[in-house]
Design brief:
Oligomer: single chain
Distance between the termini: 80 Å
Structural class: alpha/beta
Shape: flat
Helix content: 40-55%
Strand order of the largest sheet: 18-19-17-16-20-23-24
Largest sheet: 7 strands, mixed
């Protein structure tokens, strides 16, 4: 913009107006035009409501990037349009459709506020008009109308009745805005027109934009005509090819189809299918013989018949019912996982007694790396069955499960039927991996399709969309795996027998490494016993300081890393034998990557040790409380979730109710501020199980009595001080034991969970069961009178 224009603008400005502002995405409103748009963002809706409650006047400006959901001042243009709201209509959800009339251009002077909506102070900007009687003006308008006329003929997005409106406008200012709003161009180009306050300059800019668009549209039309010519040529060639096929058929070139159909019928007779299925297949074979072999429909029928004939309709594996042999195989492949092994042996025992062949549907739930997927292979080996696997992670299409209907081009059976076909038997072990990560979208809900597959009462007649005939899946042993049951749809979960596979203890990991992982990695890296050895203490350091997981996946990866480094040294001929010790471990894998919270050297006031559950196992966390003079505020920090914050407030309210019993000032909540903090603030934390821990921490701070360093606790607390049960006891206790804790305070109703803790760990810990939260003070606080 030149200096003269700036001076004119300064002179033409009226008083500064303050009004609500809505940044528009992918849309621009011009003065003298009527336009509607949808408003869905919270700030925009509030701005709209504010305008309606006042004078219906609103300032709108286009966003520079329409993908930004929460725009700041830098994200929308300074120049916009003051509009008047003509009509509002609430449509789907919270979205509001607004009809506005552009009044005049305006420039943002300042942003008055951004909460609860954007409010701006704007200057009205007057256009610098042209002389309507001037010959040059008439010429520019005529050129613009001619250019726009061509644009309308070339562009399908502009209606002719809109053009008629612009023809009758004599005012160049209004004419330019009316034409600009109808152009299908990007917002940046329209913004140039809006920011051209001199009408002569605006007409030039608009003319240039339309001229450029006309060139592009002419080129598009030319390319479209070329494509249509190619399509006509292809249709002609297709017609001629079909005539050639008909002639070849008349000459007897279609006899191969008859012989192929006869071969299919022979195979069909040997399958001994039920009459309904057999009739369906025969009908398709007869249809095939009457078709041209090279036609598209013929290919679909061929694929259908061959799929039907290749399925194992009456072919089963002989199931191993020798319990000792099966148990030996399971123990060879996996250490631990006793509940899974016990369930499989029970299933084999039932087969042996009842001769039934109905397969169970088991869901193995546990953290990553504990062997859920690999135990399924061992189950197949121990039962003498084939093994097939289907990963459900990210599957969103129902057709993945039930197949595509044959009306679609390229239709194929679902992955369930395809896997059964690949297995070659009708009773394999079928693993649905990661069933908790299944999704859904507009293509259907795969989880709902799985309901029929995993329902023992329905899967006897499972019908794939491609096959269109029932197939018996009742003999299949279905096994699913998941990291959590929270995301599995309830009807699907109800059809499965859930077996919890908890994380391994340190002792179990050491045994697994010695018995399975080290020999496996040595073999994979070409090492022999004389080349490589690792001490038990080095394995423990590897587990504690280089991995943090419930399973052993990363542990195996680190052992593989050690093997590679040793292999390199052997090839370099530095030595032929290496023994990994705790002292040498750091030279191979670098500094310790993880640390475990351990008990502090001395007891502290207001610092308690809690226990937490994570997807990679248990962990300990410290809760700190500080009391400072103030007005009774409660500060909760450490990125605590809503439930955990509620637990803290519940604990403090309970303390107020029993303050007199412990000689605590009754008005402490008025005179002091309480600050409860959970360290490692970058890590989100939530859940109700820290209630007792927070209660003890605050009580320690208020009484000034230190908390014992070797005591850890967990449990939800109520307003009456009752301690409620929580989950993840095994993982929590193992983490506490690893941190050097000697005494564990648990809810009384979690007593049964103590039996799940390994005996070697139980012997080293004292367990205290709590009915009331204040019982924890006796065991957690140092000896002091009154408690």
């Amino acid at each position: 913009m030149n200096t003269t224009e700036n001076e004119v603008m300064q002179n033409d400005r009226e008083e500064i107006l303050t009004m609500p502002c809505i940044p528009l995405r992918g849309l621009l409103v011009f003065p003298n035009t009527v336009l509607h748009f949808d408003v869905g963002r919270e700030k925009s809706i509030k701005a709209l409501e504010a305008a309606m409650n006042k004078d219906k006047i609103l300032f709108v400006s286009s966003q520079k990037d329409e993908n930004i959901l929460i725009p700041t001042r830098e994200d929308y243009y300074t120049i916009g349009t003051v509009v008047k709201i003509k009509q509002m209509l609430k449509i789907q959800g919270d979205t509001i459709r607004v009809l506005v009339e552009g009044l005049y251009r305006a420039s943002i002077k300042e942003v008055v506020s951004e909460e609860p909506f954007i409010s701006v102070a704007v200057d009205k900007v007057e256009s610098i008009p042209m002389n309507g009687d001037d010959i040059e003006t008439k010429a520019m308008i005529r050129v613009l109308l001619n250019t726009f006329d061509e644009y309308i003929e070339l562009s399908p997005s502009v209606k002719n009745d809109m053009y008629d409106l612009s023809v009758v406008i004599d005012d160049a200012d209004v004419l330019s805005d009316t034409i600009a709003v109808q152009l299908d161009v990007d917002i940046a180009k329209k913004q140039r027109v809006l920011e051209a306050f001199v009408v002569r300059e605006r007409l030039n800019i608009l003319n240039g934009i339309i001229f450029e668009e006309n060139q592009i549209l002419r080129l598009e039309h030319k390319l479209s005509e070329q494509v249509q010519e190619n399509v006509k040529q292809n249709q002609k060639e297709y017609y001629l090819r079909e005539q050639m096929k008909a002639i070849q058929n008349e000459l007897g070139f279609g006899e191969d189809a008859v012989s192929e159909a006869k071969e299919w019928l022979d195979k069909l007779e040997k399958l001994n299918l039920d009459s309904k299925t057999e009739d369906k297949v025969k009908k398709e074979i007869n249809k095939f013989t009457k078709m041209i072999p090279s036609s598209a429909e013929s290919g679909v029928i061929r694929n259908y018949v061959e799929t039907i004939l290749s399925l194992p309709w009456n072919k089963s594996s002989k199931t191993n019912s020798d319990l000792k042999k099966a148990e030996k195989i399971l123990n060879e492949d996996h250490y631990g996982l006793e509940k899974v092994k016990e369930r499989i042996l029970e299933y084999l025992a039932v087969i042996h007694l009842s001769k039934a062949i109905k397969g169970p549907i088991i869901c193995l739930v546990g953290p990553p790396g504990v062997g859920k997927t690999s135990i399924a292979r061992s189950i197949a080996r121990s039962t003498g069955r084939e093994f097939v696997r289907m990963s459900l992670g990210g599957v969103r299409d129902e057709a993945e499960i039930r197949g595509h209907r044959r009306t679609y081009i390229g239709a194929i059976p679902g992955r369930v039927i395809s896997a059964i076909k690949d297995a070659g038997t009708d009773n394999p072990v079928f693993l649905f991996d990661e069933v908790d990560k299944i999704g859904s979208d507009f293509k259907g809900d795969p989880a709902s399709a799985l309901l029929e597959v995993l329902d023992p009462e329905q899967n006897k007649e499972f019908t794939d969309h491609f096959l269109e005939v029932p197939f018996d899946l009742s003999k299949v042993m279905f096994i699913t795996t998941a990291n959590t049951t929270a995301t599995i749809p309830r009807p699907l979960l109800d059809r499965m027998e859930v077996i919890e596979v908890s994380g391994y203890t340190e002792e179990e990991k050491v045994k697994i490494a010695q018995k399975y992982l080290v020999p496996k990695q040595m073999k994979a890296h070409g090492l022999k016993k004389k080349n490589f050895a690792i001490s038990e203490k080095a394995l423990r350091d590897l587990i504690n300081f280089y991995t943090r997981e419930s399973g052993v996946r990363n542990l195996e990866r680190e052992i593989g890393s050690l093997c590679r480094k040793v292999a390199r040294k052997i090839v370099a001929k530095k030595a032929q034998s290496y023994r990994i010790t705790p002292a040498s471990l750091e030279s191979y894998l670098g500094k310790h990557r993880y640390r475990y919270d351990t008990v502090t050297a001395e007891s502290e006031v207001g610092v308690t040790t809690g226990m937490a559950w994570t997807q990679v196992g248990g962990d300990t966390l410290f809760i700190e409380t500080a009391l400072v003079p103030g007005t009774g505020k409660i500060e909760l920090t450490g990125q605590l979730g809503d439930v955990m914050q509620e637990s803290a407030r519940t604990a403090i309210t309970y303390i107020r109710s029993i303050a007199e019993e412990y000689d605590i000032e009754e008005d402490f909540y008025k005179k002091y501020d309480l600050h409860v903090h959970v360290p490692e603030g970058a890590v989100p934390k939530d859940g109700p199980s820290a209630g007792v821990t927070m209660f003890t921490s605050v009580m320690s701070t208020l009484t000034g009595i230190p908390v014992k360093k070797d005591v850890a606790m967990t449990g939800e607390i109520t307003l009456r001080g009752k301690v409620l049960p929580v989950g993840g006891i095994k993982e929590k206790v193992l983490a506490a034991h690893r941190a050097g804790i000697k005494t564990i305070l648990l809810p009384a109703e979690n007593k049964a969970d103590i039996d799940d803790i390994p005996q070697t760990v139980r012997r080293q810990l004292d367990f205290v069961l709590l009915e009331k939260a204040k019982e924890a003070l006796k065991y957690a606080l140092e000896e002091s009178k009154g408690l």
